Amino acid sequence: MRFRDAALICGCLTLATASEARAWSEAGHKIIASIAFRQLTPAAQAKIAAVLRSHPRFAEDFARHMPTDIAADETAQNEWLFQQAAIWPDMARGLPEDLKRIYNHPTWHYIDIPSYLTDADRDAIQPTLTINMSFDVPATPAPEMNAIQTIRLARKTLAAGATDAAEAAVWFCWLLHDIGDIHQPLHSTAMFSTKLFPEGDKGGNSVPTQQGFNLHALWDEFVGDWATFAMARDRAVELAGREGMAGLRPDAADPLDETTWLDESRQLADTAVYTTELLGYLRVYATRSDTQQPLSPVRLSEEYLTTGVRVSTVRVAQAGFRLGAVLGAIAAP
């Protein structure tokens, strides 16, 4: 199978073997949102959608983009609002500078738990690290919060129900987005190397690949790149109903703990992202005398790509089911 075939598999979200960081592409976040939407009661769907309509950027970033063909269908409109809310924190990156200062929060999308290319790198770098790996929830939003802190503060704020509707709408956007983000393995870690990545590889953004712009972008798009509302909705229905996926739904006893989801992503980063294949390439490159030159793009194997699609598909389903459970608890009467 040539890579163009693998890319087609990724774009269609089908699996022959099924069973500046962004996490998941637009398609991935929309699919997660639609899976979550369909876990909720109609009353909960409508309740959250009503809050989203109070978003301070609703006219510009929501209403202006709503498809005309769903104008007469309130349920479809509500599901579309969930999808749009899930991508809104990424849309905020493109706002004018005065609005970016209010709404764009780059560090809220990820947490860089460090991995090290070698034990020597660990010994040299670990004592000097200053990155935010805290799980503590600040009393008020902080500019440098990580994804875990953001999810926890959003859940706490929305569960308390004390904030106004406009602020609540923004928090719902971050919750819809970041629960997806934390299920993408490269939003859980950064690779450090004294020669190649002394400040970390930015979740794979600093590792160019032949089959994608870089490692992070490749993993973002294993579930597809762009999708209309209907495409993402239909894929969510298909994926949630796929044989074996029902077992991913959280039960009533599931603690819905963000750190568990982070630990899963960290394990997948070790086993499916930074594989022996990729680490071997990086370690050889780190021994070169010209490591100040940019890395040459790595060509990843077909096995690597197939595993990436399989892992990403499962993570998108897990994120959708878990997001639905979190939203259901918040919107409960």
Description of the molecule:
A two-stranded parallel ribbon has the order 1-2. It is mostly helical. Helix 9 (165-181) packs antiparallel against helix 14 (302-331). The termini are far apart. It has one domain: Orthogonal Bundle (P1 Nuclease), CATH 1.10.575. The protein has helices at 3-12, 26-37, 42-52, 58-61, 74-91, 97-103, 119-125, 147-160, 165-181, 215-220, 229-240, 258-273, 276-286, 302-331, and strands at residues 113-116, 189-192. The model is unreliable at 1-21 (pLDDT under 50).
Layout of helices and strands:
Layout: H1 3-12, H2 26-37, H3 42-52, H4 58-61, H5 74-91, H6 97-103, E1 113-116, H7 119-125, H8 147-160, H9 165-181, E2 189-192, H10 215-220, H11 229-240, H12 258-273, H13 276-286, H14 302-331
Parallel strand pairs: 1-2
Helix pairs in contact: 1-14, 2-5, 2-9, 2-11, 2-14, 3-5, 5-9, 8-9, 9-14
Percentage of residues in DSSP E strands: under 5%
The global form is globular
The CATH architecture category equals Orthogonal Bundle
Number of strands: 2
State the fourth-level CATH superfamily. Answer: P1 Nuclease
H/E order of the elements?
A: HHHHHHEHHHEHHHHH
Terminal Cα separation, in Å?
Answer: 51 Å
Question: If you average the pLDDT, what whole number results?
Answer: 92
CATH topology: P1 Nuclease
Q: Portion of residues in helices?
A: 40-55%
Domain count = 1
Alpha plus pi helix count: 14
Structural class: mainly alpha
